Amino acid sequence: MLLLLAAAAYAADPLADGATPTINAQTFRPSMDSHEFLRVVDSDLAAEGFTGRGVLSYTQDPLQYTNWEGTTETLVGGVMQLDAMAGWTKGRFRLGLDIPVVLRSFGGRDGDATGLGDASVDAKLRLLDPAKSAVGLAMSGRVGMPSASTGGGLGAGGFWGEATVSADKHLGDRLDAVVSLGVDFAPEQELENVTWGTRAELQAGLAYSLSP
Q1: What is the pLDDT of residue 6?
Q2: Helix (H) or strand (E) segment spanning residue 133
Q3: What is the pTM of this model?
């Protein structure tokens, strides 16, 4: 959840005109390859050739605004989204396309909406396979397009990108761990005392197999 905080009473209020900021508050972008993790990127690759995947998700209050008096307003409420993904894998490389479909956004300033989110092209290169090496290692990158049709808060309004390095390791027969470090590049927006734009992202995950 993103909170926009105003530091002083005299600060100019860019939200006073009723416009929701042109940013993509939906930061959930599911993994195209992983067999164990929904969000965090590991060194897994999808099966050789063409593959497809769909992920249904719900995000509660991804964008809220709190003014200097402590009053909070929900700019984007709940978001139910289907990510339709397709990819092509050859050897250690995978190229994919993610088309997010906003089935419904609820309770935001712009009202309920249905439409497309920001589509993106994603590429991944596995450097080390954890089945053959001490750790798995991969590099991935994503370029997003301003394709959102749902109104403010769910579209960046310009091209954006991600660059991620991931490392994972098998901890026994059933437990796997992953850590990823990335940089998100987004069009810069000045929101009172908050600058929304390029930022770092750290993710970690554990997965336990209930059966072979």
Answers
A1: 36
A2: none
A3: 0.83
